[in-house]
Amino acid sequence: VQLQASGGGLVQPGGSLRLSCAASGFTFDDYSMGWVRQDPGKPRELVASVTSGGSTNFADSVKGRFTISRGNAKNTVYLQMNSLKPEDTAVYYCNAPSGYGTLVLFGWGQGTQVTVSS
User: Fold this and answer.
1) CA separation (Å) from 92 to 13, 28, 30?
2) CA dihedral (68, 72, 77, 80) positive or negative
3) d(Cα 99, Cα 33) in Å, to the nearest integer?
């Protein structure tokens, strides 16, 4: 399994970023996918998930600001992040949520750093 996130960067508060994650090595259509973020000193957080059918779920901390989508034909999952706040700063990873908190089904792939700062 390979999970490669991209699209992070430095953005000012209130700005936007779109993250992408290319997945391979498993049957993408069979799995829910999600984005997990990790910042040193803070608990890991599952911020968004999308089922194979397109149903979505969001952490309260990002609800109304982030959207998640998937392109099954391209084995890709996206995270559109708007109205970014400094507290969104973290490394963002994609993975398949297990349904138990932040536990995921696959090993961690390459994350992408998001830094929100003026």
Assistant:
1) 17, 19, 22
2) negative
3) 11
Structure tokens given for 21? 């994650």
Q: Residue 67 half-sphere exposure, CB side, CA atoms within 13 Å?
A: 6
Q: Rounded to 5 degrees, what are φ and ψ at 86?
A: -55, -35
Instruction: Give the number of other Cβ atoms within 10 Å of residue 108's Cβ.
Output: 13
Which of 106, 90, 80 has the alpha carbon at shortest distance from 4? 106
Please tell me the distance from the alpha carbon of residue 6 to that of residue 110, in angstroms, as a whole number. 8
Q: How does pLDDT run across 75-109, given as a tens digit for each residue? A: 999 999 999 999 999 999 999 999 888 889 999 99
Which residue do the tokens 């901390």 mark?
61
Tens digits of residue pLDDT in 19-65: 999 999 999 999 999 999 999 889 999 999 999 999 999 999 999 99
* Length of the chain (residues): 118
